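Dear support,

I submitted the protein below through the web form. The confirmation email said the job was done, but the results page showed an empty box. After a refresh the structure appeared. I'm attaching both so you can tell me whether what I see now is the final result or a partial one.
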Amino acid sequence: MPELPEVETIANGVDRRVRGDSIVSVWFSNYKEPFKTPPAEMAAALGGLRIARARRVGKHIVVDLTAKSSRKLKAQWLVHLGMTGRLLVSWAEVPLPPHTHAVLHLASGRELRFVDPRRFGRLALLDVEAGGFTGPGREPLTIAAADFAGLFNGRKLSIKAALLNQSLLHGVGNIYADESLFRARIRPTRMAGRLTREELGRLRKALRAVLQSAIRAGGSSVSDYVDADGVAGFFQIQHRVYGREGEPCLVCGTSIRRIVLAGRGTHFCPRCQTAGRQGRDRGDQGPK
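What the results page shows now:
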């Protein structure tokens, strides 16, 4: 599933290409799965609106829309990519990819296309009079140190599971949780509520650094992810633990381990990432 850096890369690419363009007409597929708002309702509302900007909120791409003659926000088109979703900007003469479920025809001759083979993504239209979309949790790139530490106070779950909880920090997924915990030298099985303030400070800095580096590299292409132009990212070549099970740690040479934690494959270095106060990792379910 695309995580914060991939969604940020796509949103920025879409924004550069279609900001200020107007929606002439809309086409949606007949599959019901991608749509949280009925397609007919979205089509009726989107036609004639102007794209003020596209941006990321958590793991969502938010397209802010205004009337052509006004700067006042009128609606928001929300795109969640799910497991295999893509949001592409193409010229109208470029053939539609298979599994295309939405096409916004723009005045410039471009098209904004949502493609999703597995149909786990979601599209919705939000009435901004209800307050606009702010996401389910806090923003990891801007959260202050005290607020970050406060998210984990008393949490009786592993720090890996806490990082994946979108109601706490939205946008962080499996790849960047593993990579940031390695850089912070914290074992993923540690109980979140028992981490010290110093450890949480290291984790916050590591998480921000990893996410920012991944954004600069265009995200990690380990599966289906491509940006708004269909181009793969490059951060996967900088992965230090994720996807490196059995390979030597780039710091100490110890073999990278993979366990299942919070239902997700979790990668760490047994030597660099200490078990801390808990001693042996209680949540370790062994190699998988």
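Response: this is the final, complete result; the empty box was a page-load delay. Residues 278-288 have pLDDT under 50 and may be disordered.
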